[in-house]
Amino acid sequence: MSTSDVLVVGAGLAGLHTATMLAEQGHDVLLAERRTSLTTAIRTTGIFVRKTLDDFALPAECLGPPIRRVVLYPPDLRRPVTLISGRDEYRVGDMAPLYVAAAERATAAGVQIALGTRYAGRRGDVFVLVDRDGPLQVRARYVVGADGARSGVARDLGLERNRHLLVGAEEVFAITRSEEPPTFHCVLDPSLAPGYLAWVVNDGQHAHVGVAGYGDRFPDGLRKALERFGKEAPGLPGTDRPVEVERRGGPIPVGGLLRRISCAEGLLVGDAAGAVSPLTAGGLDPCLRLSSLAARALDDALRGERGALDQYDGAALRAHFRGRLLLRRGLAQVRTPAAASMGFQLLRTPLGQSAARRILFGDRSFPTSE
User: Fold this and answer.
1) Which end of the chain is more exposed for a tag (fewer CB within 10 A), N or C?
2) Cβ distance 90 to 48 under 8 Å?
3) Residue 352 class from Cβ within 10 Å (0-12 exposed, 13-18 middle, 19+ buried)?
């Protein structure tokens, strides 16, 4: 039997950030992660938006060159729309060393990190973890579910779970520098990426080539879609794709922030809470911001403030996703390349490009506004 103020399940950025903030406030925190190394089985593309870079201290050496240019393509890849910002809008994180740096900060703050330790459920008033030596029972005042889109902690606490999911797959590889400026390429083709998009992020150091969409709509499966896109992906002129690439993938919640993300025994953060933009599927900014809110609420609760976790209210915060939830429903209805091509005509108008700029280069960020 082990005891702790807070048990955090999952060592993604949400779990690491929450655990670190709590430990820095003097609380006893145990962080359990099923992976034996934080540098393996990475799922996120690692795209950080400008507001995240402005508000959070991320190690500069773990970030790629800034990206100001976004190119949007119709299904036939002809006559794309190019949007260029006057500011640095995106940087892609080198996620393996970034996770290591975040874990080092957590450890320095006093977090006990247990790698190779999976969450196995709840038995009465204790939580069960399993490592190579067998089961370990943990009695914690609070538990934090940072265990991904299909959260087991959410199930055991009786909290809401994600029901609206995309699935994505991506290949990442180093490239030689080119004359083209760092660019984010997005292809809108429902036959390739049903309900979402295919992308190439080329920042001059690494290429990220990926597709995502609704799992039941891929004609030949997700992997075949990625293979097909890899043969025709824009934005990689003269790039020799290596034989060995890093492969990433997993579920992406796009139903907006869940309504019930806390109870008297704990709360959810990151993908487990649905803290992902329904339209863009960008999750790193809301992940960090929601984790900050969660840590403050738990700190208040641990210090005896009555009803502290009641303020961690997903239903109230969910309102900030309303506009993009509507756009998500609209995008989900675009099922053919012909329909996508017709809709793409709007992006060629001043009004359409203005709307795209607000989405891609906007100043707002969760939870103040989405």
Assistant:
1) N
2) yes
3) middle
Tokens of 353: 């490009």
- Strand 266-268 to 29-33 pairing: unpaired
Amino acid at 338: A
Q: How is the chain split into domains, by residue range?
A: 2-361
Tokens linked to 125 = 């008033």
Q: Say if residues 143 and 56 touch (Cβ distance below 8 Å).
A: no
* pTM, full prediction: 0.94
63 Rama sector, left if φ>0, alpha if ψ -120 to 50, beta otherwise? beta
**Sequence-separated (6 or more) residues with CB below 8 Å from residue 119:** 9, 32, 34, 127, 128, 129, 147, 152, 153
- The answer to whether the CB of 113 falls within 8 A of the CB of 107 is yes
Spatial CA neighbour of 252 closest among 312, 336, 162: 162
DSSP sequence for 51-73: HHHHHS---GGGB---B-EEEEE
Q: How many CA atoms lie within 13 A of 59 on its CB side?
A: 14
Class of domain 2-361: alpha beta
